[in-house]
Amino acid sequence: MTRVVRPLRRPGLVLAAVVAAIALPTIASGALAAPTAGTATAANSTTFQDSVGEDPAAPDITTIVTSNDDAGTITFKINVPNRPQLTQDTVLVMDIDSDANPATGDPQNFGSDYILQLILGEAILFKWNGSDYAVAANQSSLAFQWTGGPTVRINAADLNNTRKLSFDAIVVSGVVFDQTTGAIDCSACTRDFAPGVGLYSYQVKIGKPSLVVKSLKPSPAKPTAGKPFTLRLVAARSDNGAVVQNGRATCVGRIGSAKIPASTQRVVGGATVCTWNIPGNAKGKTFRGSVSVTFEGLKASQSYAGKIR
């Protein structure tokens, strides 16, 4: 459904949504995408406490756990134990001040630069344009799920590459939607604001990326006297999971104290390939090799040892 094209505002939480169907950019609907394979999670998690039990009939936010990974993906886990499942009468609104500067952004809304809204099972990001909010052109990373409260994930790139932000969360229940006109009736609404006053502040911390070894495969399974032996190393960036497609390969091989030069030493097809010709008289000895790849100042390496057949 794409009728809701106006964000809900915190001051009094005026639930005015509106009406005409328009084409929106892709919006998040229901499923929270898994993190990109190979992405390393940064040790950067903050738990924000909220007061509890203000209104027994209302949703009750207890904590908000905010974290980010090295790819800049920010996760908000908003715990609402008394609303275990998402229902059609429940709405989440988050005000986000992406530069943590109340002097910029919406002057009526804590300087918010964005409003993130989960309504009728869809998550939509709105951006302040200097006089009003409009549907944000960039929100492809936005995703959510609801288990004991909403978990919302969005990349910092879709929040103007934020590195420090302020935010709040408001969960409202009892909202009645007119499926024909798009009108909203909130006369029976109950709600919880976290925090009760102002905004929380969060620092996005992204570690320096590294190269992570994904696999090291020998071919054949064991080095064999008188035959070539190859090690293929696959490495990927820690921040976005991208497999290294080029770079500088370094191959080191030894049998005992003797160095064995590599006959092949290159990065090709997403792997760093090292091949050595094992001497015919080396049966029973141990081959020790290492494969390294260097790309854009980052390096990954792994060692191997195997008895020669």
Protein model, in words:
The protein is mainly beta and 309 residues long. It folds into 2 domains: 11-203; 211-307, Immunoglobulin-like, CATH 2.60.40. The protein has strands spanning 45-49, 63-68, 73-79, 91-97, 114-119, 122-128, 133-135, 143-146, 150-155, 164-167, 169-173, 176-177, 184-185, 190-194, 200-203, 211-219, 228-237, 248-255, 258-259, 262-268, 271-277, 286-295, 298-307. A hairpin with a 2-residue loop joins strand 20 and strand 21. It is elongated and about 90 Å long. The model is unreliable at 1-5, 11-24 and 34-41 (pLDDT under 50).
Number of strands: 23
Give the distance, in angstroms, between the N- and C-terminal Cα atoms. Answer: 65 Å
Question: What is the overall pLDDT average?
Answer: 89
Give start-end ranges of low-pLDDT stretches: 1-5, 11-24, 34-41
Q: In terms of structural class, how would the helical and strand content be classed?
A: mainly beta
What's the story with the biggest beta sheet? Answer: 8 strands, antiparallel
Proportion in helices: under 10%
> So how many helices?
0
Order of SSEs: EEEEEEEEEEEEEEEEEEEEEEE
Radius of gyration: 27 Å
Q: Which shape, going by the Cα principal axes? A: elongated
Strand content: 35-45%
- Domain module tally: 2
